[in-house]
Every structure is written in structure tokens, then in C-alpha cells.
Design goal:
The chain is α+β, with helices and mostly antiparallel strands. It is built from nine helices and 20 strands. The chain folds into two domains: about 230 residues, Rossmann fold (3-Layer(aba) Sandwich), CATH 3.40.50; about 120 residues, Beta Barrel (OB fold (Dihydrolipoamide Acetyltransferase, E2P)), CATH 2.40.50. The longest helix has 18 residues. It is elongated and about 80 Å long.
Amino acid sequence: MHQGQVELIHVCKSFDESIAVDDINLRIKAGSYCCLLGPSGCGKSTTLRLIAGHELASSGQIIIDGHETTHAPPSQRGTAMMFQNYALFPHINCTENVAFALKLRGVAKPERRKRALELLSLVKMQDYGDRMPDQLSGGQQQRVALARALQNEPSVLLLDEPLSALDPFLRIHMRAELRRLQKELGITFIHVTHSQEEALALADQVVVMDHGYISQSGSAREVFRCPDNEFVARFIGGHNVFTGEYQQHDGERISLLGASNQLYQIQGNLHGKPAGQYRFSVRTDHINVTHQADTLSNDNVVNCRVTDSEFHGSYVKLNLKVNDEQIEFNAHIPDHIFQQQHVKNGDQIWAGWDRQHTWLLDSY
């Protein structure tokens, strides 16, 4: 049976007059991988520390596996924390680092050594038990810290930006290892990160935070494909945000008028009486470009100028600016199509997308 259901009910945390976490409600399913995602200062690390008990909530409730833990000490919450700097003891070897908690509980040396080696084996570090922490690479130190965090068999493992200190290649490798380990153990992982790519690759549930609030919570696909608001669309990346004045709508087809009389056709439902400005997003990989407008059959076609281009291997990122407007947006064009189009910096081109690839955003 999976362990580790976590629920936060109207949780707030203030430091003097500064509000770090502002009335958040969140439920994390037992046995899932959850990523708290957001920019620096958004409240994600404070939320993690509140769950761990390293900070106490100013108000609200924290419930873990059905038990009220809001004011319980960390040792009574069924959680374990893996810190960003790993916090290994430099004067003892890896096996002794992992066994340290058992030593404090008075477990006999043979038994605690056996358990430590089992955990080192779980993270594929069984051959490094006699090494000191300074004899290990960053990735190896992380594995030892992970084994140590699992020593008390927590139902929830809390990870504070665990991959940020690793090089890009090792980060991708350790990402897969964390996911494998979470599935193998069947416990809940709650992972703080500012990397959109990391969150999307790892998480069953992505929680996007901003200024102490939860902007959106859902599966990785839901959050990426269907952002609730402009902040999520821009922070998750891969989305352009446009603004237009309401003109008319017919069913799910909505017409908006942008600057310079640019008419946008978007898809969505207007709840309540339509009026004023609306924002919508378009994914960068759903935009087509061409030098000839009549070769585009899209619902939306805009004239723009290429201000810059970046080669990203499988695709080229074009930075585009709409003529006579201060609107800038991006298009990700597959490299083989980019080569066929012969698009250069400074070119006047046409960009197009279909209304079914637009997403109507809530106000924020």
C-alpha cells in the first residue's frame, strides 16, 4: 500500500511582516511524485520546510497520512529531508553516514552496517561504502545523502533542489534515478525545483507557485498544455501570450482585435458576459512561418520581422516582432523546415497558427 498522502489546508507562513506562504490549499496523493515549481522567492522551499516541520505554520493545517502534524516535531511526521548541499558528515565514511541515525537509536553496529549497505545498494553505491565524502563526485555524494534520508523509512521524502549542483549530463541521469527510486519504493516524493524541464520530466503532479500562492496544480501535461493564467504560461515556457479586445464569439470561436487592427481567432468558452480585453496563449511549436502569406492556411496570420534566431539542435528558435507593434513572440521551427525556408535575421515574414492551438487564459 502506498504511503505519504499530504494535505495542506489554508496554510500561511509569515516572517515578521513578510508573507512567504499565503493561504495555500494542496493535496498530494500517496505514492506520487510532486514537484513544487516556481521562481526564487515564490514560497516553494518554505512550503517544503513547513511539511518537514523545519518551519511552523503561522496558521492552517498540515495533515500527513491522516494525522495532524501542523505542530509536530520533524521526527514525528514520517518525513525525511534531503538538503541541497547534501550535509554529509565529512569525518566519517559513506556507510557510517548512512548508519548514523541508527547509531543514535542504539542499534548494534553489525545490524546498522547491514542496513546501511542495503540502502547504499539501492542507490547503486554499495562499492563506495568505505570512502569519505570528499572522495566522491557530486552525483555520488547525492546518492549517499539520498540513502541516508531513507534510513528511517519515511512515507514522504522531501527534496530541496537536489539536482541544481550537478552538471547537465549528470542532472539528466540522476533525474531518471530519482524517478526509478520513487516508483520502486512507492512512497511520496516532494521535490522543489525552479527548472520547468525537470518538473515536467519527473512529476505526476506539478504545483506552480508565485508570490506565496499556488498559481496552478495538475499533471505535467495539464499544466503545460492548459495554463490557467499568464504567469503559468510564461513561466512554464513554450507559450506566447497575446492580448486582444473582445469583438464577437460564435460557440467556441472567439474574435479578438489586437493592436494595429490585427484580428485573432481563438478557441474557448467565455463564462459570463463578454467584455474588455482577453489574453490567450499559443505554443511556440504550433506556429508556422513563411515568406509568402498566401502559403499559410492558418486561422491567424500576422506579419512580423525576425529579430534573432537560435539553433537548438532539433529546432531553431525564432524571435519575432509584430510590425508596428511592441509585441514580441517566439516560434520553434524544426531545423529541416528552417533550412528549407531560408529565414534570416531581419527578414519580413508571416507567422500563422490555428485557433485550435490557442488557449484562453484566466485573468491573473
